[in-house]
Design goal:
Chain lengths: 780, 152, 155
Amino acid sequence: MANYIGSSLKRKEDRRFITGKGTYTDDIVLPNMTYAYIVRSPHAHARIKAIHTDKALAHPGVVAVFTGKDLQDDGVNPLPTGWQITDSMIEPPHPVVAVDRVRYVGDPVAVVVAESRAAAKDAAELVEVDYEVLPAVVDATKAIEDGAPLVHDEAPNNLSFTWELGDKAATDEALSKAAHITRLEIINQRLIPNAMEPRSAIGDYHPARDELTLYTSSQNPHLIRLLMCAFVLGIPEHKVRVISPDVGGGFGSKIFHYPEEVIVSWSSRKLGRPVKWTAERSESFLTDAHGRDHYTVAEMGMDEDGTILALRVNTIANLGAYLSTFAGGIPTWLYGTLLAGQYKYPHIYVQTKGVFTHTTPVDAYRGAGRPEATFVLERLMDTAARELGMDPAEFRRKNFIPADAFPYETPVVLTYDSGNYEGSLEKAMQLIDYKKWREEQAKARNQGRLIGIGISCYIEACGIAPSKVAGAIGVRAGLYEGASIRVHPTGQVTVYTGAHSHGQGHETTFAQIVADGLGISPDNVEVVHGDTAQIPFGMGTYGSRSLAVGGSAIWRAVEKIREKAKKIAAHKLEASEDDIVFEDGKWVVKGTDRALTLGEIALTAYVPHDYPEGLEPGLEENSFYDPSNFTFPFGTHISVVEIDPETGKVQILRYVAVDDVGNVINPMIVEGQVHGGLAQGIGQALWEGAVYDENGQLLTGSMMDYAIPKADDLPHFEVDRTVTPCPHNPLGVKGAGETGTIASTACIANAVVDAVSHLGIKDIPMPLTPERVWRAIHGK
Amino acid sequence: MKIQGDVVLPAAPEKLWELLLDPQIIAEILPGCKDLKQTGPDHYEAVIEAKIGPISSRYQTRFSLLDQKPYESYRLHIEGEGKGGFVRGDAAIRLIPENGQTRLVYEGEGNVGGMIARIGQRLVEAAAKMLIQRGFDDLRKKVEERLHSKST
Amino acid sequence: MGHSIKVTVNGVTHEATVEPRMLLVQFLREVLLLTGTHIGCDTSQCGACTVLVDGVATKSCTMFAVQADGKEITTIEGLAANGDLHPLQKAFWEEHGLQCGFCTPGVIMSSYDFLKRNPNPTEEEIRHALEGNYCRCTGYQNIVKAVKKAAQSMS
């Protein structure tokens, strides 16, 4: 076995992308198609007094104009949220199109459907909405104050939930006895995901068959179908097909069920014609769910010799105007549970308040909760080490969970399955030559130069998630994955997976697994994803779950195919089933050279002229895999930065990432995932950040004002690995999509602060733009 | 967005007052103003065409001259909508006599929303200052013209 | 209202009547159905719509279709001559210079023009040349490697 697993096979999907033949949703043109343009609120908070649509309706080319009331009167329900955080969580309705109140700039108010995009857009300008503008609140820390404007009347103080985890009394007591307490106030700023493909959706209803096809740029087609059919439109699921074709990046922002998916589906049913909507980038800025946006006070207590005793974290999480699909779970279960990090200490208490504001809804963005947790913890580790006069690497080493302590149960409910934290720290320090850089740093300081070294040791819980655990923590779905393998009579194989690839290379990685599993070439394996009509069921791609959960489901189906093939081989080779083994890609009669390949077996499976009774024809298997635990990638990243004292500009001199993602199927793809993750994490540290004015206008609403990292902003990354296989899934894999983002934000922030700490600077809020760094250095 | 500044106009407050409230003058000095209509005492409607950076917009605006204390002060309130979003502004205007001339001091808040806020934000403040400056330059010219024509 | 234009795209001459406000990228995508050229932003930042206009890399959202009258356009679909991948396409494939693929056509077209002007670039020069093309997936490292490899194989 293992001809392909572990090799950097070129991606099967690339030919279509490099020749311009990919098919993204907006590329699809259907006969008789119409185009929707959405009129959106320019106000963060207002009462809709009246909507006048007559002028828009009279505009040439306009087919229909719908308002929120039209949808409501037709029985369209609000969008559901999929994660109930506490029993008392307040879940105000989230109308698909606003009816009487708008709650953020970008909230849909009306829909114009026309024969062309241009006509729809022109007519949208003719829709007149009378607003009574109301006061708005954008900052979550202000929104929970008494007297703040209310986003939803049913949520006093704008509070959706207060969630806590850990032993408060024990933590408070341990902190009260600590020899030293390190305290940080952290703003983890709001980010805007900006997948390069703007979201797009097409509803295509066939009245004669009463069937609806929804094409949507989603990471999660089956879940979208479930949510839309069962909760919003109340139509039978088997009459709806959701296709997510090529999708141009997601990073979390395309997991969620968005209003526009309902708008095009419902409009198409009304009009009997296909309806397409594609976001303009400025709509993406306003309406793609944003990420992060935490305000946190964190305190860590140590004894005299630097052993950590306890951690107390209080976070106010901005949820935006409505609860997006997974909104509640991100700043709670995916955040608080990660606060043990790589360290062994007995007491943690975390409390999160989820708060509504008049801003775009906030939900999972690459890393989702885990980068926020890592940032809190790793900033604390560096700050504490400095305050204790210890080297930050030494301080971490002192507090690591030792390699022989696994499985290790943290004070915040996770059980880490495996790990070797000392190993990855050692490797990263060697790669970057940590000692040499400390010497360089000292020399540089004498010359008035500012060099900083940043360490970030992270843990990630991914491979989301055991359904039992999901249920226990309020997820309103199971988080298994489905797969189906069909061996065709010629021995070619089609794999149907519920995971969805939007850049991750599943068509290649999954083909490598199946190729090795069945003794064929990956060229003979076709991976189908993103179509509910072809795939039994799936839970989509997010939380670095595709390989650990989806790949494992595929492996289970491979095992079932092998079992069936064994029966067929036994029959054809006239041997006992017990004597057939799968060896070197063939079904062999033990100890002989008599063997059959998959192709030979498959043909007989479909031409079973001589099959004995009880042996079923055909060669096709389904599997659903529910993981028994999360997977726990970990690693150490170290960076070296130099700051120009005159301008405050940060230059990254070195960036070393040592990750442990378990077994690796395709190293090239894993490295690519790490690079991309690093770019987004470094983007948060240095440049990115959503800015609202006090009235709720998004000021960073275009790529002119929101700083997405460019090629010449980023350094050459040095990426390496350690391999600690995951003990509980059949492939020993963990997940690699988010590690880079989780580790790198804190890594860079630590390096920047390290570069200026001798000037008495303890912290600089992100993004660490030249202006902010300069102000910190010059005390202005 | 805070807006403040002052301008010296070549006439005493008593002479200026009428001009400042004269719809025709307002129409002429309001940058991009088209089609000014009086809808009531001191209440007006106008179409304003504004171009900020890459975006040009037509705004249906309403404005009012409130809290008038003749020769001393008044408040200008403006709000409007257009395809680029909305504009709202409120400014307190004081007239301070200064050697037979008048120092007009304005202080206020302006808000814009929609496309201009998102895409043109960096330009809005600069553009607003420029438009206000242009408006007052025009006002000074008008004042000079009127006074000149009256004196001849 | 319509303007008649004659544009040669990937060697084929098209005559069409277009609205004056139609952008070149809309003409390519919606009239000619050459959907390999993508629209990633509305402010000419992202470069996903980059094509060659008379051999020069141009963001096709910055140009009206009527301005392309009489010009020769090459899009990503026209880069592989007779089905043989261009060295840039091969290099992007071999070096894993793409993930979701959405920015890729624009990046490749920009690189094509760049390598014509600078056939033997340094890493720094490549990074600088590509600052008008945003990629959210790759962190650019493998894009840079791919452009370098293409330069080597073309020289």
